[in-house]
Amino acid sequence: MIQLGKTIVSTDLIEKEFVCNLGACKGECCIAGEAGAPLSKEETEILEAIYPKVAPHLREEGKAAIEAQGTWIESAAGDLETPLVNGAECAYVTFKEGGIASCGIEDAYNAGDVDFKKPISCHLYPVRVTDYSEFAAVNYHRWPICDTACTLGEQLKVPVYQFVKEALVRKFGQDWFDGLDAIARKNQP
């Protein structure tokens, strides 16, 4: 573990390699699982505000789920999440050529309709951040559906933290990322 400011960072972010391989997994992380994408309170407010501009980018099933459940839900455990379609995929999921899952929020962002790219938990994946009162734990989440991403990352020699650089900078800032990068470079074999 590495302490960096008010974060405790798993060395897996530096030691493990990862590059999404959408051609192989088809974006399964947006479909599999038992819950929607984790959201912050601020993100729930953003989703409520931008939904009218995101809705045209969504599938009918997603819009129906959002209209029935809301732009976000609170789980039984009190966690804030994106709603699901019939307990399966995220309501914001869209599908591209070849059945590849995409994000309707990101589609709206890429079209210039909104200035919010997507929830930070999605942008950071496979990195998960858990906030505690005194610090945030920054960990690599290994999921078997991402095995092809691990293989591709190894082939391309891209550490996890480099793969999610934009999201880490968005979450923690450029100085924080530069600090992590300096530690990683110092510890290279």
Please sum up the structure shown:
By secondary structure, the chain is α+β, with helices and mostly antiparallel strands. The chain has 10 helices and 8 strands.
Can you put this structure into words, describing what you see?
- The protein has 189 residues and is an alpha+beta fold.
- The chain contains ten helices and eight strands.
- α9 packs across α10.
Spatial arrangement of strands, main beta sheet: 1-2-8-7
What structural category characterises the helix and strand content?
alpha+beta
* Shape summary: globular
Q: Mean pLDDT across all residues, rounded? A: 91
Low-confidence stretches at least 5 residues in length (pLDDT < 50)?
A: none
Sheet-strand content, in percent, reads 5-15%
Helix fraction, binned, reads 40-55%
Q: How far is the N terminus from the C terminus?
A: 17 Å
Number of helices: 10
- Characterize the largest beta sheet: strand count, sense, and whether it forms a barrel: 4 strands, mixed
Give descriptors for this structure:
189 residues, alpha+beta, 4-stranded mixed β-sheet, two-stranded antiparallel ribbon, 10 helices, 42% helix, globular
